[in-house]
Each structure stands twice: as structure tokens, then as C-alpha cells.
Amino acid sequence: MATEHEAAEMAQEAGHAAAEAAGHAAESAGMPQLDFSTFGNQIFWLLVTLVVIYWVLSRIALPRIAAVLADRQGTIAGDLAAAEELKLKAQDAEAAYEKALADARSEAQKIAAETRAEIQKDLDAATAKADAEIAARAAESEARITEIRAGAVEAAKTVAKDTAAEIIAAMGGKADAKALTAAVSARLKG
Amino acid sequence: MEGDIVQMGAYIGAGLACMGMGGAAVGVGNVAGNFLSGALRNPSAAAGQTATLFIGIAFAEALGIFSFLVALLLMFAV
Amino acid sequence: MSEATGEGLVFHPMDQFIVKPLFGEGPIHWYTPTNAALWMGITVMAIILLLVIGTRGRAVIPTRIQSIAELAYGFIHKMVEDVAGKDGLKFFPYIFTLFLFIVFSNFLGLLPKAFTPTSHIAVTAVLAMLVFLTVTIVGFVKNGAGFLSLFWVSSAPLALRPILALIEVISYFVRPVSHSIRLAGNMMAGHAVIKVFAAFAPLILMSGIGIAVTPLSIVAITAMYGLEVLVAFIQAYVFTILTCVYLKDALHPHH
Asked: Of the candidates A31, A49, A62, which has its C-beta nearest C14's C-beta?
């Protein structure tokens, strides 16, 4: 209950204080807001303030902020346009790359075919040359074999003739050279 | 004595004037509550109506301020 | 206990609003530099600091202060455009001036020991009268006598129209009153309530009951201060948007 009493006391006190305040500011009509002697002063300074703010805003601040905002808008629009342009460029570059790739591939195929043809030609020439050489060697060898065979036949004939003549001589006869030769030749032909 | 009675009347009047604040409180609560119930029904339309909400609240509470002003005038200016 | 409280607690909730000369005593002439003039000057300085010094970089990527200035610009610009229409935009610097002055003096007035110019009827009445005169003059210049159709509600039944016209005229002339008293009253009320709570705070030095009362009053001051921060912005916003609404009436009187 003390609280209530206290509150009542304080309220009363507040009332007294307010009354005192009203009394001590009696010459200024209680509420400072209704003290008409200060109105002229406040209105004058308020008008000065408003004019200064208006001047600062309309001359300096607002054009500047509007310019900055427009600038930003322009920059963003420009950036978007540039991005669009770059995208187109990238697409172009990709197409060019594809084309270069295809060109290079066909070029490579062409070069490979050419090379293959050249190699084939060389190969053919070398084969032909080797064939010719082989043929020449074969012919030479044949000739020599023929010669050797002829030599061998001759030698065999001579040996056979000599041997036949010796045998005849040993048996006490006398061999006719002509008849011997004819007989050996006939045998060898045999 | 006479002055005391005048002062008493003024203080009683100031207290009575403060009841007007209750009315303003009801009014502001009404505005805000109705806004909220409308906003919950159609949230997409709510954002565009916040300005109207504040104007309504301002009108409602201006009347509470008037009663407060009457109280102040009775306390300090009469 | 009662004598203890009787000694100390002093309630002067309205003393903070007294206009005093800055230098010495004496009568207040219209040119005297007073605390009101000082705080209006500080308001101007703060506005210049934000909107001129803060934006001097003209950066495309804004600094913090510059983005606050741009935010305020965009906020009011959009409000004027949305409420008053495109042709209201040529009043944008004027409305922005009012908004900045009110919002800055409201917030600067929340500093301890500060004086709040917008808590004075004289100041807000001038602001409201400026708006009222602007709106009336613009309305008649733009629409001629057609501006009077604002009061003639053509959608109402014919019999009701004269009565409605009377009500509309009265409400039109009450506009500057409510416009000014709303702002001054809100500012004054919040500051006075804070001051009343503050007067209870030193009770702990005088009596035992103060142990309960003092923390309570400090909490109450804090809560009121938070509310006042909100109110300081909302009242500036409301004043500005009502200006835009009145301007819309002047530019497009046909509903």
C-alpha cells in the first residue's frame, strides 16, 4: 500500500511541480510552444533553413545524385550490351574454330593421301628396279651355269675319250680317235 | 481558494482528455489489425498498400495527439 | 518517505522546449540566434554532410554514405511519382527539402540535451501552411475554377452533394491544422514522456522505493526512446506522403 501512497504523493508532487513550472514560466504562457514572443524568431530561422536546404538540394545534391543514378543505369545498360556483343563474338570465334578444325582435318587427309601416293610411287620404282636387277643377276647366273655345264660336258667328254683310249690301249688295241669321239658323244647324248 | 478550484478543474479536465488516447489506441489498432487480416488474405497486394496503412494510422493517431494536446493545454496553458 | 520525495523530484517536462538565446539573456528578437536556430543549423549541416559531402565521389559503385543518400533520393522520388504522378515530379526538390528537414530535426532532437525544432507548433505550422498554400495555388493555376470540383463529389446523389461539399471544404481547411499538430504533437509527446520518466529516475538517491522505481523508469525511458526513433521516421514519412496526397489533389482534382 506504501506504493500506492507513494504514487499518489508523486503524482501530487508532479502536479505541484507542473503548477510551479507553469507559474515560473507564466510570463511565457506555460507551454513553450505557445510562447508567441518566440514565433517570429523560429519562423525566420526556419525560412532561412528551408531556403538553404532547397538551394543546396536543387543546385548541388539532386543533379549530382540524378547524374550518378543515370550514369549507373547507363553503365549497367552498356555492360549488358557489351556482354551481348562479347557473346556474339564468342559464337563467331567458335564457328571459326570449328571451320579451322575441319580445314585442318581435310588438309591432313590430303597430305596423308599425297604422301601415301608418293611412297607408293617410290616403292613401285624401287620394286621395279629390284626386279630388273634380280632378273639381270638371274640371267647372268644362268649364263654362267650354262657355261659351267658346257665346260663340264667337254671335260667329261675329254675324260671319257682319254679313259676309253687308255682302256683300249691297255687291252692291246689301237683306238681310232674318230670312232672314239663319235662313241663318247653318242653315249653322252644318251 | 477560487484559483485552487480552477486549477482542480483544469487537472480533472486534463485527466479526462487523456481518455481520448484510448480512443486513438483503439483506432490505430483497428487500422493495423484490418490491414493485417487483409494482407494475410492477399499477401501479394499488401506491399502496395503500406503507404495507405501509414496514412490511416496517421489520421487515427492525430486525434489521440489532439486529446494529448488538450491535456497539455489544460495543465500548462490555462 | 514522503518528505524525501517532496524534496527532490522535479518535473519540468516542457522545459526542454523553451527557446533561449544562445548568447546571454534578454528578449528574443526575430534575428536573435537561439537554440532553435542552432539546431536548425545543425540540421542543415547534417543534410549537407550526407547529400553533398557524402556524394562528392560521384562513384558508380557507391560508398556507404553515398548509398544512403541515393536511398533517400530514391525513396522520396518513388513516393512522389507513385502518389502524385509524373507531373508531380517537378515539386520533388521541394518535397525532398521538407522530408529531409523533418527527418533530420526529428533524429537530431533525439540526442540528449538537443532541441527539436519540429516539436514547435510555430515551425510545423509554417511547414504545413507552405504546403497548403502551394497546393491551393497550384490547384487554381493548373485547373482554374475546375479545382473547385474537388469539393463537389459528382459520384454522390444530388441531394447530398451540398452537404458533402460543406464537409469537404471544412476538411480542406482543417488539413494544415492536423498536418502541423500531428508532427509537433508527436514530437512533443514523446519527448515529454521521456522527460517524465527521467524525472522518476533519481528517486533511488532519495528513498527506498527508488530501488523498484528507478530501474523501471530507466527501462521505460529505453523503451520510449526506441518508440521515438520509430516515430521520428514515421512522422517524417507521414508528413511527406500527406504532402504528396494533397499535391495529387491539386494536380488531378477529379477523383
From this structure: A31
Separation between Cα atoms, residue A109 and residue A111, nearest integer Å:
5
What ipTM, to 2 d.p.?
Answer: 0.88
Q: Where are the domains of chain C?
A: 2-251
Domains and CATH numbers, chain B: 2-77 (1.20.20.10)
pLDDT of A28 reads 39
Place of cell 495507405: B52
**Which residues in chain C are contacts of A41 at CB distance < 8 A?**
19, 28-32, 34, 36-37
Q: How far apart, in whole angstroms, are the C-alpha atoms of residue A141 and residue A147?
A: 10
Distance from CA of A6 to the nearest CA of B (A): 19
- B70 CB neighbours in chain C (<8 A) are none
- Residues A1-49: pLDDT tens digits? 444 455 555 555 554 544 444 444 443 347 788 888 889 999 999 999 9
Q: Which three cell numbers stand for residue C26?
A: 534578454
- On whether any CB of chain C is under 8 Å from the CB of A79, the answer is no
Q: What is the pLDDT averaged over residues C18-28?
A: 84
Our CA-based measurement puts residue A102 at a distance from the nearest CA of chain B, in whole angstroms, of 56
CA distance C107 to B71: 26
pLDDT at C7: 52
